[in-house]
Amino acid sequence: MSGHQTKGDKPDCRDSQPLQLAHQAQLDKRQTILRASISKLEQQIQETETQLQEVTSKLRSPEKASQTVRDHIHLLHAYNEIRDIGQGLLGLIAEARGARHIDIQNEFGVTTED
């Protein structure tokens, strides 16, 4: 055998062309599916970013959070002062009547948790 190819040894280009077309069609189909998937994911990202912006806009800023904490502390101090005054008045009533403090609290509907 010499190193020359005969016509029967060579692959026929016409035989591989349908395979190449089928392969290209599969690649095109996959590419279309991937593009649709990417489009859908981009839309989901946009929707999620919009939701994030909406939620973030509803949140209070750190400055407002600090003010809220200060307001609550102020209200707790005011509550404690009022409660102490109320307990003092109940004590004066109990002393004036010669009754126990707990009995006066029960009479006025004040519990130990109040």
TrEMBL record:
Membrane-spanning residues: none
Protein keywords: Coiled coil, DNA damage, DNA repair
InterPro entries recorded: DNA-repair_Swi5 (IPR010760)
Coiled coil: 31-58
GO cellular component: Swi5-Sfr1 complex; Swi5-Swi2 complex
GO BP term (any one): meiotic joint molecule formation
PANTHER family: DNA REPAIR PROTEIN SWI5 HOMOLOG (PTHR28529)
Family the entry assigns: Belongs to the SWI5/SAE3 family.
Name this protein carries in UniProt: DNA repair protein Swi5/Sae3
